Amino acid sequence: MTYYASLMGVTMRYLVASFGDPLPWSECKDSWNATCIDSRLAVNMVEGDNATKVSSAELYFVNDVLKEADSIDDGIGSPDWRLVLCLLIPWTCICLTLVKGIKSSGKVAYFLAIFPYVVMLVLLIRACTLEGAGAGMLYFIKPQWDRIFEAKVWYAAVTQVFFSLTVCFGNVIMYSSYNRFSNNVYRDVTIVSIMDTCTSMLAGLIVFGVIGHLAHVTDAPDLSKVVRGGAGLAFITYPDAIAKFQFWPQFFAVAFFLMLFVLGIGSNVGMATTIMTVVRDRFPHLKPSLVAFVIAIIGFSIGIIYTTPGGQYLLDFLDFYGASFVALVLAVFEMITFAWIYGVGRICRDIEFMLGIQTGLYWRVCWGFVTPVMLAAILIYHVATYKALTFNGYVYTNGMYAFGWCVFAAGVLQLPAWALYAVLKRKEATWQDRIASCFKPTHDWGPEDPELNAKYHESVYKYEQTLPAGRSLGRKVLDNVFH
């Protein structure tokens, strides 16, 4: 959450700079580099003499905004005061959004959810009017079938979905805890999943439409050489393209970075609300405003390290060891717990009890077999082909790699640690009985309403009476998924 907010700080820096005329990244500065070339110029930087030159948009991002160091061997340096001030803005917005708890964040969510679509519609219309936009959009949606079986592609896709839908980060569970018992979760997850995919596609069409225009005006023969990944796409490639706009580049720069900022605030509010919910569930006497203020102060204080010249080194490092990798491991065990410990069959019966809807075969097969197997396969391949993380060619020290694995362990070892805690809390006489009882729902598991709880346990009892005694392992597997 803290490093994600730091990206919002960088976005705010660009948003403020977008009001300048000319755009500050459109022209080179004498202090930057002798090989710099103005981004406002329509020149081919892929081939010929310009291939060795660097655009002013890239140098603005690296030298002016981040003041990025060549390495962090001698430390990460001192925070940049401009980025610190810009970092303060998103955390202030998050704090104000959460000041009254879920009620205030729920109201703000309407703006955070709707406003970006208005901006994206404007940007999409503009992108479609640019020469070469069609080639960029086609590049975005055209599959590269030769890479369909590359595990790293699936790993990137899975981690992207995790972040996009905040899977395995607690947000979904937190929001669902505020739902009515009979809330149509089937409808909600369908809408959210479809809208998430459509939004990603819409954003991709906008960005790659502009990149296609960039390739067109610079006469670049291969669009793939124009595209950058990660933060470079938002803070180098897209600004580089906007700098070449002949018509009102400031407006489209402001619109783009404002959209990014609002989307980022929406995501960060969800993560912060999850922390607030956990804290207030444990300490209900605490005021929402106090919890929100403390979360913002701690998050802002930690985020300051990302405003240093070595901040991007740490951001990339912690993103890998502390977020993406950990989320995938937790997702595998979460799916195993969901599908084979609690059970697909019981989940489906719970859904039917709550909504009166029978779960189809597609969902049962996906939950029971397809998703767990695919996630496990991606994780195994990722571990088997693991290579030490580098940042723009920089190899971290052995001490940093050791620290990274400690961060990874701190996240993953939560599983066995809390499992052991659950076993120790049980009152059964033998360890075998204690462990076995941990794999079963507690006696009070079910709806909070006493009447519904009684009906729920009655339905569970009736189902268990229909099961034959002495079932084979194969029969148990079939019953778990298909019964």
From TrEMBL:
Please indicate which superkingdom the organism of origin belongs to.
Eukaryota
Q: List keywords of the entry alphabetically.
A: Amino-acid transport, Disulfide bond, Glycoprotein, Ion transport, Membrane, Metal-binding, Sodium, Sodium transport, Symport, Transmembrane, Transmembrane helix, Transport
- Give Gene Ontology CC terms: plasma membrane
**Record's bilayer topology term:** Multi-pass membrane protein
Spans traversing the lipid bilayer:
111-141, 153-177, 189-215, 251-278, 290-308, 320-341, 361-382, 402-424
Q: Name one GO molecular function term.
A: L-amino acid transmembrane transporter activity
Q: Which Pfam families has this protein been placed in?
A: SNF (PF00209)
Entry binding sites for Na(+): S164, L263, S267
Q: Where in the cell is it found?
A: Membrane
Q: Tell me the disulfide pairings in this chain.
A: C28-C36
GO biological process terms, semicolon-separated? amino acid import across plasma membrane
In UniProt terms, what function does this protein have?
Unusual broad substrate spectrum amino acid:sodium cotransporter that promotes absorption of the D isomers of essential amino acids. Neutral amino acids are the preferred substrates, especially methionine and phenylalanine.
Family under the similarity heading: Belongs to the sodium:neurotransmitter symporter (SNF) (TC 2.A.22) family.
Kindly provide the name given to this protein in its UniProt entry.
Answer: Sodium-dependent nutrient amino acid transporter 1
**From which source organism is this entry?**
Culex pipiens
